[in-house]
Write a structure and sequence with these properties.
alpha/beta; Aspartate Aminotransferase, domain 1; Aspartate Aminotransferase, domain 2; 7-stranded mixed sheet; 4-stranded antiparallel sheet; 15 strands; globular; binds pyridoxal-5'-phosphate
């Protein structure tokens, strides 16, 4: 381990294994006592102290009455403020609507903006519930494969342009930063996408949930901030759930660029999509207002872990292909050079006792890929890497 990959951070590296095993949430609960989980995109770290305090304060007030939000929840201004402070994007509070999670956000937008059989372009590989959503909603998924180059994962703009034209897509689902490759598109790349969107009059649904987990020197740029044309054709989806480890709060925001879509949204019966819980709003506001110091430590730990993972892959499993992510705590690993005779997730579970995600749910061409969640303590990560190496090193060494 190099000094860069060995520094410990209090509050993140002192995870108690009994506490982890005793958690009721799915990541540690489902796999059982003998398996190390590095699958679903939850982090192992305790939630930020600022969120704990805010939720305690809310409980101490002994008040869980109906919220008084005649003009929407306080999340609307909190989101607009966060976007301005972080990215210089003057998002408009009045254009924000609350949902429980980003899958619901995407489903609602597709419901409002498209009909069954309509074509929707989407990068592949991709976050499995988004691909599953297109399937269950009867939209035609038009895969835009990310290209694995020696410089890292790249979007194929010519393929995007051709596919959108050929399939007459109405919508592009853009996940940036990208899950699972961890790519953060540069301004130049985003402008290429924006030009294609303009040429084909696409609605862009921009999932930016991993934005705050971007590693320097990479920089997240909100798609809607690129130009007035991009602003008017973009629906931005995000929440505090990834960057502050709050999946259970069920609270997300949608920022509507297109006036017509916002009007359609507001014309729906107000209760059709439910109301977010005030506790979710309290937690999100606290994270955005008081969570930055915690998040800085978090990024130190995640950056260290991503370097360590690459170090181990390079040293012990050099035949595996991997580009360190530019954001997120997910590593996307190509096992095709090993030519395994079974899905790699199964091999790693059987021979390494580590539960990973990967394979076909991530879309066409993903069968031989693994996704490792490295948002854990140094000690747990070492055990995950040991399991991974035990399961794959036979075929993966030189
Ligand atoms: C790219 C992406 N979008 C959306 C989500 C959904 O997050 P949530 O359920 O907190 O809305 C995830 C979760 O992993 C994700 O990685």
């Amino acid at each position: 381990m190099t000094s860069e990959t060995s520094r410990l951070v209090a509050g993140f590296d002192d995870l108690d294994r009994d506490w982890l095993r005793g958690r009721g949430s799915v990541k540690w609960h489902r796999p059982g006592p003998d398996v190390l989980p590095a699958w679903v995109a939850d982090m192992d770290f305790p939630i930020p102290p600022a969120v704990v305090t805010a939720l305690h304060d809310a409980a101490d007030r002994r008040d869980l009455g109906y919220p008084d939000w005649p003009h929407g929840s306080p999340l609307r201004t909190a989101f607009a403020r966060r976007m301005t402070e972080r990215y210089g994007w003057a998002a408009t509070a009045e254009r924000v609507r609350e949902q429980t999670d980003l899958i619901q956000c995407l489903q609602l937008i597709l419901h409002l903006a498209t009909s069954e059989g309509d074509a929707v372009a989407i990068q592949t590989p991709n976050y499995p519930p988004f691909l599953a959503t297109l399937e269950t909603m009867g939209r035609r998924a038009v895969p835009i494969p990310m290209k694995d180059t020696d410089e890292g994962w790249r979007m194929d703009f010519a393929a995007l342009d051709a596919a959108v034209r050929h399939a007459a897509c109405k919508v592009l689902v853009l996940v940036n930063p990208h899950n699972p490759t961890g790519r953060v598109l540069t301004r130049q790349e985003l402008e290429e996408v924006a030009a294609i969107a303009r040429r084909h009059d696409l609605l862009v649904v921009s999932d930016e949930i991993h934005a705050e987990l971007t590693y320097a020197p990479h920089q997240h740029i909100p798609f809607a901030s690129l130009s007035s044309d991009a602003a008017q054709r973009t629906v931005t989806l995000t929440s505090a759930t990834k960057a502050f480890n709050l999946a259970a709060i069920r609270c997300a925001v949608t920022h509507y660029g297109p006036d017509r879509l916002l009007a359609l949204r507001d014309a729906q019966p107000p209760d059709l999509y439910g109301t977010v819980s005030p506790l979710g709003v309290v937690a999100t506001e606290a994270a955005w207002r008081d969570g930055d110091a915690w998040q800085r430590d978090l990024l130190t730990v995640l950056d260290r872990n991503r370097r360590r993972l690459s170090e181990v892959l390079r040293a012990l499993m050099p035949r595996l292909r991997h580009h360190p992510p530019e954001a997120t705590y997910l590593a996307w690993i190509d096992t095709r050079p090993l030519d395994l005779d079974e899905p790699p997730t199964e091999r790693v579970l059987k021979a390494g006792n580590v539960l990973l995600d990967g394979g076909t749910p991530f879309g066409p061409g993903a069968d031989a890929f693994l996704r490792v969640n490295f948002a854990t303590s140094q000690a747990v990560l070492e055990d995950i890497l040991t399991g991974l190496t035990r399961a794959l090193a036979d075929g993966a060494g030189q």
